[in-house]
Amino acid sequence: MSPRTVLTFCAFFVSVLGARYDPTWDSIDSRPLPAWYDEAKLGIFIHWGVFSVPSINSEWFWERWLGSRTPEVVNFMKNNYRPDFTYADFAPQFTAEFFDANQWADMFSASGAEYVVFVSKHHEGYTNWPSNHSFNWNSMAVGPKRDIVGELAAAIKTNTSIHFGLYHSLFEWFHPLYLQDKENNFSTQNFVIDKTMPELYELVNTYKPDVIWSDGDWEASSDYWQSKQFLSWLYTDSPVKDTVVTNDRWGSDSTCHHGGFFTCQDRYQPGKLQPRKWENAMTIDKRSWGYRRNAPLSDYLSTQELLATFIETVSFGGNMLMNVGPTKEGTIHPIFEERLRDVGAWLNVNGEAIRSSRPWTSQNDTITPHVWYTMKNSDVYAILLDWPTGSTLSLGAPMTQTGTTVQLLGYSGNFMWKARSGRGIDITIPPISANKIPCKWAWTFKLSGLATMY
């Protein structure tokens, strides 16, 4: 058999049976990222659990009460609860009586997001599905008495084109098996074998998510967590092997080094192009991922701030995962809903510059501040966070040529322009009445037919 015949046969074999990935980082890292994720750009994160009952400080409430003993949390419990009250006593109050998965799906669809990542289990260990590995510490046994993950997965997959994803914490603050493994300097793996890995396989096989967003990895290596074995199966033999994407939080050695897309740290904004696809996981509430009853208005990012973060993220080639925290009753607070719908309204006008875009040769302008660039096909998009104060918008990065055209997305007609000396463009801004301005925040100029830049 000739070498060419062998290669042809191998290509056919892979196309029929699919690529196989070994439980090594070299093999796992070689897996191409499914295209849908890079094209999507915007996802919605949802942090919901027993921590939504006390709903002060953050989703780390339990650890800050009995672990690090944060004064705000310790004093809150001392002043409002009986001395023998336990964290488990909060669970029956996680009622979710107003949780309507179809309503949530409609809201997420209106945001313009193309994927959601729902917290199936946070570091408290409470599972939002009837896991066979959580005993009575799950949403079917105590609290809502419902399969929260199942209901949301069905609503998202049935009523929207959004990709459904799940967050899962590898570790649990106070689980005795984990604490025992930790005491043994992670030379034992009882917690991983009996709890973490069975949960992950159960989630994938039951709900078939397109995203597995791992967390809680930082105290031990990926070898302890058996992450490479799981990812090898996920990419090779799982029911979502062709569509699933994962992040990088699979062990203290893997974050920002191995896995799928990189998150590196919360609210990650590197400020420059990255060699690997990355994601900015961030919160509308600046101080918490879970809902806080006592959060003042000043702690919520404005729509303008959200869009500025989103636009910068996309300009540098990243995705943004924007977090909301529902109440214990299952409602998404109106301020979160307003932000989601505002972003969706903006994308209705400017989505052409965002979805399926890629970074341009320049990410921000060299003359006018707060201007960010994206590119799709041969068109370049200049996204302005501030509307021009005069009759001219000067941009230093684009290089024009005969036939270059300038349009404002959401506004009819071409804009007049002239080339700047050497490089750049001066765009004439005509008087536009308030009711003709295409959106309230961040305006996009589409530049077509620019000179090729190398």
TrEMBL record:
It holds the Pfam family Alpha_L_fucos. Residues 363-447 form the Alpha-L-fucosidase C-terminal domain. It catalyses: a neolactoside IV(2)-alpha-Fuc-nLc4Cer(d18:0) + H2O = a neolactoside nLc4Cer(d18:0) + L-fucose; a neolactoside IV(2)-alpha-Fuc-nLc4Cer(d18:1(4E)) + H2O = a neolactoside nLc4Cer(d18:1(4E)) + L-fucose. Its EC number is 3.2.1.51. Homotetramer. Alpha-L-fucosidase is responsible for hydrolyzing the alpha-1,6-linked fucose joined to the reducing-end N-acetylglucosamine of the carbohydrate moieties of glycoproteins. InterPro entries: FUC_metazoa-typ, Fucosidase_C, GH, Glyco_hydro_29, Glyco_hydro_29_N, Glyco_hydro_b. Keywords: Glycoprotein, Glycosidase, Hydrolase, Signal. Gene3D superfamilies: Glycosidases (3.20.20.80), Golgi alpha-mannosidase II (2.60.40.1180). This is alpha-L-fucosidase. PANTHER family: ALPHA-L-FUCOSIDASE, ALPHA-L-FUCOSIDASE-RELATED. SUPFAM superfamilies: (Trans)glycosidases (SSF51445). GO terms for biological process: fucose metabolic process; glycoside catabolic process. Residues 1-18 form the signal peptide. Belongs to the glycosyl hydrolase 29 family. Residues 19-352 form the Glycoside hydrolase family 29 N-terminal domain. One of its GO terms (molecular function) is alpha-L-fucosidase activity.
